[in-house]
Each structure stands twice: as structure tokens, then as C-alpha cells.
Amino acid sequence: MEEKLRLVSMYEIYKNMLTKHMREIFEQYYYSDLSLREIASNKNISYQAVNDSIKKTQKQLLEYEKNIKGLEMKQDILFLLENSDVNNKEIDKIAKKYR
After folding, report:
1. Reduced to 3 states, what is the DSSP secondary structure of residue 46?
2. For residue 98, is pLDDT > 70?
3. Does the CA dihedral 78-83-87-89 come out positive or negative?
4. Range 63-68, long-range pairs (CB < 8 A, 24+ positions)
5. Rounded to whole angstroms, how far apart are CA atoms 63 and 1?
């Protein structure tokens, strides 16, 4: 479940960097909770094509996060906003990650 939430969070950040086809399949699988077979039937493609698209999209999202760190940055910003009592040392530590 945690991995699914992480993938959906990355998707929200990087979805515009994916193809329309990848977005459609990802959304049907993760948001509409359709099975791979249902998606294949809806899109008139093979089960294997859907499975390959899901895996490729997951891999692409992980690669974007590895290089861009958008989700990590979002989590750090939320941490700072939610913890107004964070000291300057913590703020400097987080700021150094993005320099």
C-alpha cells in the first residue's frame, strides 16, 4: 500500500512528462482500480501490453524521482510547514540537499 501511495504521489508530480497512453493506463489501474484484463479490454490491447505499460510507467516515475527529487522536496517542504518550531540547523540541512 505504501508503495502504491508513493507511485501515485510521484505520478501527480511527473504525469505531464508521461505519454497520454501511459497516463490513461496508469489512471485506470491506480485510480479506477481496474484489473489489467479490464484495461486491456477497454483499450483493445493485450494484457501483456497493459502490464508492460504499467511497469514502464513505474520505472519512469522512479527514474524521474531519482533525478529530479520532486516528491522528496515536496515532503521536506510539508515537514517544514507542519513543524514551525524546526530550528535553523534543520532548515539548513534540508536547504543543502537542494543546492
Report:
1. coil
2. no
3. negative
4. 64/10, 64/13, 64/14, 64/17, 65/10, 65/13, 65/14, 68/14
5. 20
Please name the residue that has the C-alpha cell 516528491. 71
The number of residues making up the chain comes to: 99
Chain-centre distance of CA 95, in angstroms?
A: 23
What's the farthest any 2 CA atoms get from each other in the chain? 56
CATH level 2 (architecture), domain 1-67: Orthogonal Bundle (1.10)
Tens digits of residue pLDDT in 31-43: 999 999 999 999 9
Please give the single-letter amino acid code of residue 60: Q
The C-alpha angle 50, 54, 55, rounded to 5 degrees, equals: 115
